[in-house]
Every structure is written in structure tokens, then in C-alpha cells.
User: What shape does this take?
Amino acid sequence: MIEDEAFDPTVTSSEQVFEGKVWDVRREVFEYNGGELTRDFVDHTGAVAILALSDEGEVLMIKQYRHPVRHRMWEIPAGLLDKQGEDPLDAAKRELAEEADLVAGEWHLLSEFHTSPGGSDEIIRVYLARGLADAPEVFDRAEEEADMEKRWVPLDDALDAVLARRLHNPSTTIAVLAASIARSRDWSTLGDADQPWPRHRKLAAS
Assistant: This one.
């Protein structure tokens, strides 16, 4: 079995060198292999993403504009863990309601990953949400979310789009691949939605 290994070097200095609108940049100096290294990285809150799967086997996709890459991308609902003290599962439930006007009666852990471990400490937990129903209220949306388009797509069609390189959002790509494999294994790979998240160092330390 192979598994990523946690490792905590001695950090001799840590400072915020840039304060951004959404996230910051941090510079840390740390001891490694008998020497000292300096690295800058995006200081990120972490995030959650939700693959909402209907009883008919369709995935909810939303199209949203992403300015850094100049694309309107088909994605699964997702959001930042930017509310102090909010549990990740509660955040996922909130994002599903706010972005898709849906609630779910069944939640499982599908996947988790670091988006760019060489330059950011962002980590995303992906949930599988089933037993879907309309949320009790419809949320007003602003900025890039104001013109979001929603579409239900068969999981197999979403998988075809990932394999044909027509979808590029990492949460969506990983979620669709993981859900397709989990389904082929009778969902035996799913985890408990409320299990601890030790790989999210900021949550584990709080």
C-alpha cells in the first residue's frame, strides 16, 4: 500500500508577504535535509466540493466564469471554508443549497486532494450527495455566480467529457472519476461524511 506521509519540519520563520482579496501569500523558512529552504505559497482556507447525484444517475453541473483562465467552466458545486469554525460537512450542505438550490438526505466522503501542493496549501474535500430535494429557499446570486447555468448530466456522459479532456476543473474531474469507480465497486469505497480531516492542517490545529 502507498500513502502520503505527513511531515512537519522545523519552521524558523513564517510571514504574510501579500494580502489578497480572497487569499494571501505566505513566506516560510524551514529546515530540511541539513539545510534551510525558503518557500512562498498561497495561504488558503481550503474548500469543499459536492457531486450531487440524482436517483436517475445524473450529476448536477453548473457553468461558472473563472477569470484567471478566461473560461466559463462546467463544475460541480463548491465553496471556500471561509466561515470561522464551520464544519466542512455543514459547509458542503450550505454550498449545495446556495449554488444549486438543493438539499440532500444522504452524504458520503468521495475524495480529497491538494490542488497544487508545490505552491499552495489548499486542500479540497469532495462529498457525494444523494437523496436530493429542492431547498426551502432560492438564493440570490451575485458576481460570477449571477449568470450560472445548471444542467443535469448522466454520470457516464460526464466521465466521457473528462476522458475527452473537455472538462478541466480539478474538483469536477476528480469527483467524476472517483464516483464512476466507486459505482463500479458498488459504492464500497465511500467514507463517512463526518469523519475527521487531519490532512487539513488548519482545521486539525483549531
The longest strand covers residues 102-114. The two ends are 30 Å apart (CA to CA).
